[in-house]
Request: fold
Amino acid sequence: MPTMLESLIIISRFKFFEEKLKPRKQNIGSNKMIPSNRTATHPGIILLKEFLEPMELTQKVLATHVGIPVQTIHEIIRGKKGISPDTSWLLSEAFDTSPEFWLNLQTTYDLSLHKPVMHIQPLVAISKCRIGRATLIPSIPQ
Reply:
């Protein structure tokens, strides 16, 4: 059982980690949060390495605490299952994080896994004075 000081260190470490992973405002079309040279880390690995192992918790203890089957926790940790919105709420309350923290991890992982092979040019609006509304056409590369 961790001492009070160890508990405070663990809590402050998690809050620091959560602050580091908070999404920053990005320009539209920017994907700085998604790794370009690798697949993002699955949230199950982060759950295991940053939460369960440092707190010396088992998957069974976590599953019992949040009220979901052990198999679900096991599949998340193995990367076979993603974090659902319901699970994100449960994990956020169990570890004093936010549900957005868990969903952002899952979204970043999913996006890094499904990067497009083909890219397209962005659309630009050209207004037509007679019609009174904008028409979208592809931008022309310079």
